[in-house]
């Protein structure tokens, strides 16, 4: 789906009626390449999103207040606070047929005081800047270029000099340099014709076997989607060649689609939104009208970014957890090495005893003592009694450490086991909410530093499934949910299931003497919510809940159990979801 020049034109028209002359109250980094603005105009707040991500480059209004999604402060964000926060949007401009929008912003030299959040300002009831003169204003341009892989968001000062960009472009990367202190220039305009002046002679002169590609190559602002729509309106379907095109009709439809007012539509299939258009698309089925272009874009990208955002968050959290695991593993290795050294220090005591035993037989300034074939190295410049006492002190110190080290080693190994459990549960997390819960648990357990991003309170309840026999099955999808399923929801006589020898969900059947069909379904669910989800068959242990024990001092969700029996099942979803969260 194309965020093309026609789509941007429809968005700009909306922005001129909503945020033009509004004051920018808040600036946040929603993502590494995405900014969010809160604009106050006529007693109402409007929320604007702009992204330079190659896969989701766009700009449009959104319905909810944008939230900060990046920890820390980037140089670009600091400059946005300085030049944009508190400023008024005095002009919104789109060069003809270009995917570029320029926001001209004027900011009072002495802006209002920020709130506790440095990304926003306090509300201003008196929104009149009439008393300000040009000398009191700081001018800049915020340029948004939603152009796929070349997308960018650029801050330019009043002298047309680049202050910074969300993506810096060096001379080695492109001939169009986007770096601080360089002069800003618009993207070079392509050598194409104006679609509003299209003629039948121009259409008839098109060549090639692909009329869509021919229109895109000949006219400015024409994306493949616009070309398909023009040809469908002119011919009833998309021709396979430029030969025999109804030139007058194609030219008329091309002029028409660029001249008509925006008519935003959202294209759906059985899975949800799959496209958008600033006109009624005849070549795409299941198009429904939308109240605005921004509404259509928000619906489309929200549906598209759910899996993208989930996978990105999963990868980011995995990297952080793996870094934490590497740190704990190094600690464990150090403790194990110290314990090994402490175990070898019994020799110090023996050497001290031997020195005292042969004290009167050793000559002055002796350099060694041989006892039963073992050589003890001595310092001829020090007294024998001093060397013996030194060995006894080292031995006592090692003995003290040896009493502590096994406990510290066990603690490090339990922390590694708990972290491995979180990593395994992260791999099988199906939704963003699960990933957020796992991140919260990792922070609470001390595996990660608490995030500075304000995260809403997350409600965490195990998954509840109704089996084909109508019996309740509870499934934990995080470490704390596993603990809740096993030690709060389950009764001592309930059946408890878990994939054998691997990390995964705790599953219980809350029923007396469940039938075999329900047991098989619960085992399949335990296999599905485990590290072996993609295996053809998985061994699943089951026992009564009374046989499950917490590991003393261990992290949430880690247990031991005995006796048990084992089933071999295929991992799969089954039953009916009763409660998801």
Structural description of this entry:
With 581 residues, the protein is an alpha+beta fold. It contains 12 helices and 23 strands. It has a 7-stranded antiparallel beta sheet with strand order 22-19-17-18-16-15-23, sandwiched between helices. A 5-stranded antiparallel beta sheet has the order 5-6-7-8-9, covered by helices on one side. A 4-stranded antiparallel beta sheet has the order 1-2-3-4. Helix 4 packs across helix 5 (224-235), helix 5 crosses helix 6 and helix 8 (346-357) packs antiparallel against helix 9. The protein is extended. The protein starts with a helix and ends with a strand.
Q: Would you tell me the overall average pLDDT?
A: 90
Task: Give the overall shape.
Answer: extended
Percent of residues in beta strands? 15-25%
Distance between the termini: 33 Å
For the biggest β-sheet, the strand order reads: 22-19-17-18-16-15-23
Features:
alpha+beta, five-stranded antiparallel sheet, seven-stranded antiparallel sheet, single chain
Strand and helix map with partners:
Layout: H1 5-18, E1 23-31, E2 34-41, E3 44-51, E4 58-62, H2 75-83, E5 88-93, E6 101-108, E7 137-145, E8 152-157, E9 162-165, H3 200-204, H4 211-218, H5 224-235, H6 247-259, E10 265-269, E11 272-277, E12 287-289, H7 293-344, H8 346-357, E13 368-371, E14 374-377, H9 384-427, H10 432-444, E15 463-466, E16 472-475, H11 479-489, E17 495-499, E18 507-509, H12 516-528, E19 538-544, E20 548-550, E21 559-561, E22 565-569, E23 576-579
Antiparallel strand pairs: 1-2, 2-3, 3-4, 5-6, 6-7, 7-8, 8-9, 10-11, 10-12, 13-14, 15-16, 15-23, 16-18, 17-18, 17-19, 19-22, 20-21
């Amino acid at each position: 789906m194309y965020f093309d020049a026609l789509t941007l034109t429809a968005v700009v028209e909306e922005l001129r009626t909503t945020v033009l002359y509004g004051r920018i109250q808040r600036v946040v980094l929603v993502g590494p390449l995405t900014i969010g603005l809160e604009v106050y105009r006529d007693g109402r707040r409007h929320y604007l999103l702009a992204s330079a991500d190659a896969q989701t480059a766009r700009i449009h209004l959104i319905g909810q207040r944008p939230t900060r999604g990046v920890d820390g402060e980037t140089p670009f964000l600091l400059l946005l606070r300085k030049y944009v926060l508190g400023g008024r949007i005095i002009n919104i401009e789109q060069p003809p047929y270009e995917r570029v929008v320029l926001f001209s912003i004027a900011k009072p030299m002495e802006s209002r005081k920020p709130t506790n959040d440095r990304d926003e300002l306090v509300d201003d009831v008196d929104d009149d800047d009439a008393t300000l003169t040009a000398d009191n204003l700081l001018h800049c341009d915020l340029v948004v270029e939603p152009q796929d892989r070349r997308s960018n968001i650029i801050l330019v000062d009043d002298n047309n000099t680049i202050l910074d960009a969300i993506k810096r472009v060096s001379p080695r990367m492109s001939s169009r340099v986007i770096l601080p202190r360089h002069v800003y220039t618009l993207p070079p305009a392509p050598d194409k014709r104006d679609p509003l002046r299209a003629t039948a002679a121009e259409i008839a002169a098109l060549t090639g076997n692909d009329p869509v590609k021919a229109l895109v190559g000949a006219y400015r602002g024409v994306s493949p989607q616009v070309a398909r729509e023009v040809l469908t309106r002119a011919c009833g379907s998309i021709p396979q060649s430029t030969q025999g095109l109804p030139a007058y009709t194609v030219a008329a439809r091309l002029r028409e689609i660029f001249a008509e007012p925006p008519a935003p539509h959202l294209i759906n299939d059985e899975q949800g939104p799959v496209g958008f258009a600033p006109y009624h698309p005849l070549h795409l089925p299941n198009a429904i009208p939308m109240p605005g272009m921004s509404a259509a874009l928000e619906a489309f990208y929200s549906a598209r970014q759910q899996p993208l955002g989930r996978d990105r968050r999963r990868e980011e959290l995995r990297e952080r957890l793996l870094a934490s695991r590497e740190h704990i593993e190094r600690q464990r290795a150090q403790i194990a090495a110290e314990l090994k050294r402490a175990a070898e220090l019994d020799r110090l005591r023996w050497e001290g005893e031997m020195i005292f035993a042969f004290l009167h037989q050793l000559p002055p300034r002796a350099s060694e003592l041989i006892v039963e074939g073992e050589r003890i190295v001595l310092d001829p410049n020090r007294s024998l009694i001093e060397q013996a006492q030194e060995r006894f002190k080292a031995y006592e110190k090692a003995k003290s450490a040896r009493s502590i080290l096994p406990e510290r080693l066990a603690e490090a190994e339990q922390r590694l086991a708990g972290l491995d459990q979180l990593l395994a549960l992260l791999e099988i997390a199906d939704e963003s909410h699960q990933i957020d819960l796992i991140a919260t648990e990792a922070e609470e357990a001390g595996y990660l530093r608490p995030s500075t991003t304000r995260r809403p309170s997350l409600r965490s309840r195990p998954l509840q499934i109704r089996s084909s026999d109508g019996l309740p099955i509870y499934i934990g999808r995080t470490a704390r949910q596993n603990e809740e399923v096993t030690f709060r929801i389950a009764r001592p006589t309930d059946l408890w299931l878990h994939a054998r020898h691997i990390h995964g969900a705790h599953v219980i059947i809350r029923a007396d003497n469940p039938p075999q069909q329900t047991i098989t379904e619960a085992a399949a669910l335990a296999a599905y919510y485990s590290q072996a989800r993609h295996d053809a068959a998985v061994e699943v242990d089951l026992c009564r809940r009374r046989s499950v024990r917490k590991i003393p001092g261990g992290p949430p969700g880690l247990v031991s159990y005995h006796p048990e029996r084992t089933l071999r099942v295929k991992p799969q979803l089954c039953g009916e979801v009763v409660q998801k969260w």
